[in-house]
Design goal:
The chain has about 200 residues and is mainly α. Helix content is about 85%, strand content about 0%. Helix 1 packs antiparallel against helix 2, helix 2 crosses helix 4 and helix 2 crosses helix 6. The mean pLDDT is about 85.
Length: about 200
C-alpha cells in the first residue's frame, strides 16, 4: 500500500510539473499561479502561507523562479530525487518544443496566427497574476494589519519602482524586518498598555 501511495505521489508530481511547463506560457510570472494551483489547491502539498514564503525566497535567489519553486516542491515531497524529477518534468516539455520548433521560428514569428495567439493569451496571464497579487495582498493586510500593510506596500513600491532597488535586496530587507516583527509588535503593545 505504501509503495502504491509513493508511486502515486511521483506520478502526481511529474504530471503537475509537466502541465505547468506546458501551460506556463510567458515564463515565470505565468507559471507561478499554475504551480500554486497544483501544489496548494489541487494536491494540498503545502499551505498557501508556505507557498507565499517559498515564492518570496525564490524571488530573492538567482535564476528562473519556476524551476526554483519546482525544485523546492519536489524536494519537499521526495527529497533530492523529487527535486530532480520535478525540475526535469517542468523544463522538458518546453525544451523539446524549442528544439522541435527552432527550424520554423522565422516563419512562425511573422505569422499572423501566432501574433494573434500571443495577443489573446496576454490578458489571461494578466488576470491570473492580478488574482494572485490580490490574494497575497489581502493576506498581508490580515497578517500585519491594514495600516502597517499599506505602509509596507508603499515602501515596497517606492523601493522597487521609484528608487529602482534590486528586488532581492527589497525582499531581504522585508525578511529581516519580518524576523523581528512579532517581537517589535509585542513591545509596542506592552508600551501602549503601560501608558494606559
Amino acid at each position: 500500500m505504501t509503495e502504491a501511495v509513493s508511486s502515486g505521489v511521483w506520478r502526481q508530481l511529474c504530471w503537475a510539473m509537466v502541465k505547468t511547463g506546458i501551460l506556463g506560457y510567458g515564463g515565470g510570472p505565468s507559471v507561478i499561479p499554475l504551480i500554486r494551483h497544483e501544489a496548494v489547491a489541487r494536491h494540498q502539498w503545502m499551505s498557501d502561507e508556505e507557498f507565499g514564503e517559498i515564492l518570496a525566497f525564490a524571488n530573492a535567489l538567482p535564476g528562473p523562479i519556476a524551476t526554483k519553486i519546482a525544485a523546492y516542491l519536489g524536494y519537499r515531497l521526495k527529497g533530492t530525487g523529487g527535486a530532480t524529477v520535478a525540475v526535469l518534468a517542468h523544463i522538458m516539455p518546453s525544451a523539446v518544443a524549442m528544439i522541435a520548433l527552432l527550424s520554423a521560428v522565422n516563419f512562425l514569428s511573422s505569422s499572423p496566427i501566432v501574433q494573434g495567439m500571443i495577443g489573446a493569451v496576454i490578458p489571461v496571464i494578466a488576470v491570473m497574476l492580478g488574482m494572485m497579487a490580490y490574494e497575497f495582498g489581502e493576506r498581508a493586510l490580515r497578517g500585519s494589519g491594514k495600516v502597517l500593510g499599506v505602509i509596507f506596500f508603499a515602501c515596497a513600491f517606492i523601493l522597487l519602482q521609484l528608487l529602482d532597488v534590486h528586488p532581492a535586496l527589497v525582499i531581504m530587507v522585508f525578511l529581516l524586518y519580518g524576523a523581528f516583527h512579532f517581537k517589535l509588535r509585542a513591545r509596542l503593545e506592552a508600551r501602549q498598555e503601560q501608558k494606559r
